[in-house]
Design brief:
Elements (H helix, E strand, L loop, with lengths): L2 E2 L4 H13 L12 E6 L6 H7 L4 E18 L11 E20 L3 H7 L7 E10 L2 E10 L2 E3 L4 H8 L2 H6 L2 H8 L3
Parallel strand pairs: 1-4
Antiparallel strand pairs: 2-4, 3-4, 3-7, 5-6
């Protein structure tokens, strides 16, 4: 079983119990003005996500059951930005992916879709159920289409490693089961 923990204790402390205690109906639309987004890749980094999505605020840390984190490229083509594999998720019974649930304004939805190359067909938005302390939340997330497995690019890993949490959670050894999958 490959368990990919993307968030460490420093992030869990930052979230705190107040986010967990928020009243929430459980669907991906908190109200018609906001939505919940489950991030598992480079958008775990607040500074990256908020560049084009300023409304993003941490809601909680959560896990996605029966999925695993893998790295690859859309149709095998390395992106001009990352020059190698980037994160996506795929169904995998028994595995789980940890990530951050962000609360975002509907006004940022188009920007987020653009960042994930939805119009180009690279990723598809999906709504999946994630689990957090005592709650189940339906969140928007993205899954790469036509993924061809590839190791994460040095540029992609460098962005991840800028955050102290990534340095402790994403050492090279911890990536090997994910990179070598399938």
């Amino acid at each position: 079983m490959c368990v990919c923990v993307c968030v460490c204790v420093c992030e869990l402390r930052a979230v705190g119990s107040t986010h967990e205690a928020n009243q929430y109906s459980g669907n991906g639309m908190e109200n018609r003005h906001t939505f919940l987004y489950f991030a598992y890749g480079s958008n775990l980094l607040k500074e990256r996500l908020q560049l084009k999505n300023p409304s993003a605020t941490v809601h909680c840390v959560a896990r996605l059951k029966d999925y695993r984190l893998v790295f690859g490229n859309y149709k095998g083509l390395a992106s001009d930005r990352w020059h190698g594999g980037v994160a996506t998720i795929e169904h995998s019974p028994g595995d789980e992916v940890w990530g951050v649930v962000w609360r975002m304004s509907m006004s940022d939805l188009e920007s987020l879709d653009s960042q994930e190359n939805v119009t180009l067909g690279a990723y598809s938005p999906v709504e999946l159920s994630v689990k957090t302390k005592g709650h189940e939340l339906n969140c928007r997330t993205y899954i790469m289409n036509s993924c061809v497995y590839a190791p994460p690019s040095p540029q992609y890993l460098q962005v991840r490693m800028q955050h102290p949490c990534y340095r402790s959670c994403w050492g090279r050894d911890s990536l090997q089961p994910v990179v070598n999958a399938k």
